[in-house]
Amino acid sequence: MARDQDALETAVRLLGPLEGKIMRAAWTEELPEQFVVRDVQRVLPNLAYTTLMTTVNRLAEKRLLRVKQIAQQKAYSYTRAGSAADFLAAASKQQVERLRRQYGEAALVAFAAELEALTPAQRERLQNLAQRE
To answer: Which of 68, 72, 78, 118 has its CA 20 to 30 A from that of 55?
Structure first.
């Protein structure tokens, strides 16, 4: 449970302030599994509907939320595209790829040095995490 909370806090920090508030509500199930912008407004009542709509759409563009048009309406519903841990895994993979492209083998050498500095217990935990993906 502590790791889930750590993943949540880290994931929220990677997002903009409002994006983080919305995704925290989605990931902690403060919002229903399937929700509309009005549901978000109930959780964040001090914000304008249009501000929330824009931000929720931005989260859908970033693939943190899935969007679906409600049948025979102009409205859309949203669902989480994954967990906070899923988002962290994808975001970290993108960052590692960016570092590798930018710094080449020097980035890989730096990562290898970091891995060598880990305790055996830390290495085992990372291996277990890697096997889950």
So the answer is: 72
